[in-house]
Every structure is written in structure tokens, then in C-alpha cells.
Amino acid sequence: MKKVIYSILICLGMVVLSSCEDTSADISKVTYFASLELKGETAMKIKLNDTYVEPGFVALEGDEDITSKVEISGVVNSAKSDIYTLTYSVANVDGFSVSEQRNVLVAAPAFASAYYGESKVGVRHYVNAPIHIVDNNDGTYSIDDIMGGFQFHGLNAGLEPAYDLHAEAIIKLEADNSISLVSLGSWAPELGLTLGLNSGSYDPVTGVIELDVKYGSTNQLLVTLTK
């Protein structure tokens, strides 16, 4: 009787082992996730009415080149000063996708233009924030963030639209190319920060704007806008 039971257990073990081997063979598979690398800069600049030339990109799935499968969404309208975002995406054979972005600034020769903002407060330093200055046609200009992107692009990136982190302002370009603050719009009152403008200047040759912004009670926020 013992021999019979022992023989049955051996047979059951062989069946289970065979079943496990078959199952493993069915689900064993290697997945290579796609990789995507942009050539050139991810924050580019071109002049108004110049032609945008795509720097290129490379996509791989393991050792296989899948660059031809990359899709690009977004367009650059070089006839209008703005910052345009191009999104590059590609998926592997299993549908897992990866994406990268490139910003292209179309710069106008006038003071009113799109800019990249650089902001510094102490050890905090952020670059390539999209900033826009619009001519109000009354001697003043609207800037969509006098902080140069310090809050919405750097310190608290991703918190909009829940919080209004753009500090809109009306500014004036004086005859000597200094910049004065006319008025400041409302923004994120929950932060309890007082803003102002200590000084500002515009270099018409380089197109660079320098702003010394009063940020809070003691901090100095240095902003540089380039196009």
C-alpha cells in the first residue's frame, strides 16, 4: 500500500512540474522600453520670420533604431513672436511610450516679444521660463510674470492652475531704457509675498532685460530676460 501511495505522489509531482514548465514557457518574454534623445538644445531661439530647422532626434528599442516611428506634435509659427512647444513621442512594440519636449522661442526685434526668463533668489536659480511682453499701445507694456518664472516655472512648478503663480504687471520703458513699474496684478494671495520693482533696464542692442524685483520683505529676486 505504501508503494502505491509513493508512486501516486511521484506521478503528481511530475505533472505539476510539467505544468509549471509549460506555463513559464508561455509567459517568458523580454520587453525593451523605447529610449528617445533629442539632438540640439531643448530650449531654442530663432528670429522672427526665420525658418525653424529641426535639430533631430534618435529613438531606440533595445539595439533596434526606431527613429522613423517618432511622432511630433506642435508647430512653430515663425511669423509670430511666441514660445512654441514641440512634443516628441514614440512607443515600443508593446505600446509603452516615452516622450520629450523642446521649446522654440521666436524672438521679435522690438521690446514686446517672447523671452526666456532666468531667476535667482539666494541659491535658487531657474532658467528657460517662457515669458511674454505685450505692447498695450498706450506707452505701457504687459508682462505675464515680473518674477521671470521663479514661482510657476521653478519653485512651485506644476501647481498651476490650482494656484495663480504668474505675477502679471504693467511696466513702462523709459526714454533712457530704464524700466518702471506702473501696476501689479493679483497673484497667489495665499503665499503672502509682497512684490515690487527696485530697478529695471533694457539693452536694445542685445535685447536683454534686467529686473531687480522686490520679493517679500527682505529677499532680492534677480531676473534676466533674453530673446
What does this structure look like?
InterPro entries: Cry22Aa_Ig-like, Ig-like_fold. It holds the Pfam family Bact_surface_Ig-like. This is DUF5011 domain-containing protein. It comes from Bacteroides clarus. With 227 residues, the protein is mostly beta strands. The chain folds into two domains: 34-107, Immunoglobulins (Immunoglobulin-like, Sandwich); 114-226, Lipocalin, CATH 2.40.128. It has helices spanning 2-27, 150-155, and strands at 34-38, 43-47, 57-61, 64-65, 71-73, 82-91, 97-107, 114-121, 124-135, 141-143, 169-173, 179-184, 195-203, 208-215, 219-226. A hairpin with an 8-residue loop joins strand 5 (71-73) and strand 6. The longest helix has 26 residues, at 2-27. The radius of gyration is 28 Å and the shape is globular. The chain starts with a helix and ends with a strand. The model is unreliable at 1-25 (pLDDT under 50).
Taking all Cα atoms into account, the compactness measure Rg is: 28 Å
Q: What order do the SSEs take from the amino end to the carboxyl end, as H and E? A: HEEEEEEEEEEHEEEEE
Could you estimate the helical fraction of the residues in percent? 10-25%
Q: Biggest sheet: strands side by side, in what order?
A: 12-11-10-9-8-15-14-13
Multimer state: single chain
Query: Low-confidence parts, pLDDT < 50 over ≥5 residues?
Result: 1-25
CATH architectural category of the largest domain: Beta Barrel
**Strand fraction:** 35-45%
Structural class by sheet pairing and helices: mainly beta
Q: Kindly give the count of domains.
A: 2
Biggest sheet layout? 8 strands, antiparallel
According to CATH, what is the topology of the largest domain?
Lipocalin
First CA to last CA: what distance?
A: 92 Å
Average pLDDT rating:
89
**Number of H- or I-type helical stretches:** 2
Protein name: DUF5011 domain-containing protein
Domain Pesticidal crystal protein Cry22Aa Ig-like: 36-106
Organism: Bacteroides clarus
InterPro entries: Cry22Aa_Ig-like (IPR032179), Ig-like_fold (IPR013783)
